[in-house]
Amino acid sequence: MKMGKPLKQVGLIGVGMVAGILLSVQISAIADKETRAGLPVEELRTFAEVFNAIKQGYVEPVEDKKLITNAISGMLSNLDPHSSYLDADSFKELQVGTQGEFGGLGIEVGMEDGFVKVVSPIEDTPAFRAGLKAGDLIVKLDDTPVKGMTLSDAVKRMRGKPKTPITLTIVRKGEQKPIVVTLNREVIKVQSVKSKLVEPGYGYVRVTQFQENTGPSLVKHLSDLYKDGALKGLVLDLRNDPGGLLNGAVGVSAAFLPAKALVVSTDGRTPDAKHQYFASAEDYLRGSRDDYLKNLPAEVKKVPLVVLVNGGSASASEIVAGALQDHKRAVVLGTQTFGKGSVQTVLPLPGNTAIKLTTARYYTPNGRSIQAKGIVPDINVEESANGASPERLREADLERHLINDKEKEATAAPKSKDGKANGKNKGKEEDEKSELPAPAEFASKSDYQLNQALNLLKGLQIMQNKP
């Protein structure tokens, strides 16, 4: 759902969520290198002159720390959409968020044209239940206009004690009037894995986000599904999964792939950015914990498998879909994914701050780059029977996104052919306050893509979408 210009900034910001499309959290110190690039003396002299001019002549006094922090933030934010400076609060949120519990509304946001733009709501959070959508512009927080705020200021206003309310005024493409919705802040506890037996003999597992506990949780859910006997087929749902931790993605892939199979590789400028990750304990475990995949039912390695994806599937979920697709372990069904194929490394700095720096691209086992393209499903099935899927923000829509080095002309997926996909109302007077529609419910009887996945597993004909 495009609205205005491409996002100028997409950050890991608190509103209660770990970075939605963060591939990996590699907490590593900035080590001294044997050789360092020579510093650009002339440019640094210019920087010092500008710094001094501001200190001496700006209309109000400015602290040195603020000027330096803003300079660091500017350096990073102008590289690509996923590199950023993390102040103490954001860095703490990142560390807490990867454990699956944090406070806020449950949305990842960025800035566009001075407004806060929703990148993705997290499932089962206040924002998701209220019906916020990717592409929504938040123009007012309570009675305060967002225009003129920094992203950090807006985020701090949206944070707060659990059970306290905040009113958001939202502008949505296709809606003539602003949408006003009041949310109650919560401590967000993201359930990483969900499952159910959708029909006798057919299991369903959904990964909502890749966290530290995703692998062990997946094994528990699969074991529960196998308690009543072997399955005839399994659906792995990665739709709207914004990503998360790399080792979580490797662990989920390893659950379905043969031991030692290549899952993903990364390539960057430095030696430690060049790496291959395999379906082996040393690549999906962190620390000296027991190998959770030892408890996996043996039948999981061979059960017929369909992976569901859509434009909200990003980063770590694209790694899993790409690995299972390349090894021909699963049929990928749905719509083209988000296309975030870059690795972010978190480098701690003094003062409990850090930088999140894009250090590499990642590649599927067959050497495909997903950057700015995404995973193309083996079978394209839109989200509804009439051939419509909501328009979604994708990596290729973001300003300064990295190019796909394997396919230079990779672009965003085509928009839906259905002109009504944006929910535009015609010939009707609207109320002063529009209401947000209920969010789509996955794994329900009306879940069109899931029903087609089950048809595929049963050997039945898939109903092709018709616009």
From TrEMBL:
Keywords: Hydrolase, Protease, Serine protease. GO terms for molecular function: peptidase activity. GO terms for biological process: proteolysis. Residues 404-445 are annotated as: Disordered. Pfam families: CtpB_N-like, PDZ_2, Peptidase_S41. Residues 404-435 have a biased composition (Basic and acidic residues). InterPro entries: ClpP/crotonase-like_dom_sf, CtpA/B_N, PDZ, PDZ_sf, Peptidase_S41A, Tail-specific_protease. The keyword tRNA processing does not apply. Residues 91-159 form the PDZ domain. PANTHER family: CARBOXY-TERMINAL PROCESSING PROTEASE CTPA (PTHR32060:SF30), TAIL-SPECIFIC PROTEASE (PTHR32060). Belongs to the peptidase S41A family. This is Carboxyl-terminal processing protease.
